[in-house]
Design goal:
- By secondary structure, this protein is mainly alpha-helical.
- Helices cover about 70% and strands about 0% of the residues.
- The chain is built from twelve helices and no strands.
- It has helices at about 1-10, 15-35, 40-50, 65-75, 80-105, 110-125, 130, 135-150, 155-165, 175-215, 220-225, 235-240.
- The model has no long low-confidence stretch (mean pLDDT about 80).
């Protein structure tokens, strides 16, 4: 079906994808700049507090995983006020956004183009999630993990999904499925490699924070558990997956 659809598309189909993508993103950024966001205010406060010498999780509460804290702090390294921080945050998300579309389009049988169109429509409709938050980053890491998974490189996929879970927990929901497939296809050896890759991926981001922050690092899990069924919570993500 997808190959038939691909043959009916014009040679400029990918170009139209990019035109639609950037048009939608420019409209979203223009809309977002005129709309206050409580989330961005929290991100900016966390970044400023950390950059001023406080230790996150230990000296001030953070309700996000450590990978998320890295992302929301990055614009703070270059900004001196909230207005500039907000603009840099939007541009940082746009980088991941472009990478997602490029990854989808790299599929060469037409399915990637269809997936890119679906992504543009769905993410544009979600507005706040992809503009005022950092959800686009775990989405990118998980998508790349899926590409390795589809190619049979399950340990690499496991490491990437673990890194995605260090940004936002929902990619961890996919790890049991990946482990089961690894065991079915490669036996104990493959499942052991996958399990070790999960540990390695988690350690890339988590271990430095654990060494600096200590056990208070895990307090963010309590904050996440208290979110209930918000769409961006772990429970809401589980329902979306189901």
């Amino acid at each position: 079906m997808f190959q038939s659809l691909w043959r009916r598309m014009t040679p400029y189909s990918m170009a139209w994808v990019w035109v639609a993508f950037f048009a939608a993103r420019l409209l979203l950024i223009d809309w977002a700049c005129g709309r206050p966001s409580a989330d961005l205010g929290i991100f900016y406060a966390h970044a400023e507090t950390w950059l001023n010498g406080a230790v996150p999780y230990r000296d001030f509460p953070v309700e996000y995983p450590p990978g998320a804290l890295l992302i929301v702090t990055l614009p703070g390294l270059l900004s001196g006020d909230f207005g500039f921080y907000r603009l840099l945050f939007y541009l940082l998300n746009l980088v991941a956004d472009v990478a997602i579309v490029a990854t989808l389009l790299s599929h060469d049988d037409g399915r990637g183009t269809v997936a890119a169109w679906l992504y543009i429509v769905a993410s544009t409709a979600m507005l706040d999630v992809f503009i005022h938050r950092f959800d686009v980053w775990p989405t990118l890491v998980t998508l790349i993990g899926f590409r390795f998974w589809a190619a049979g490189k399950r340990p690499t996929a496991a490491a990437l999904l673990s890194i995605g879970a260090a940004i936002k927990l929902w990619p961890a929901l996919l790890l049991p499925l990946l482990f089961i497939e690894s065991h079915r296809r490669g036996g104990v050896r493959e499942s052991t490699r996958t399990l070790l890759a999960v540990g390695a991926g988690s350690a890339v981001i988590g271990l430095p924070f654990l060494l600096v922050c200590g056990w208070p690092l895990f307090r963010f899990l309590g904050a996440i558990a208290s979110h209930g069924l918000l769409p961006e919570s772990l429970y809401g993500s589980l329902l979306l997956v189901l």
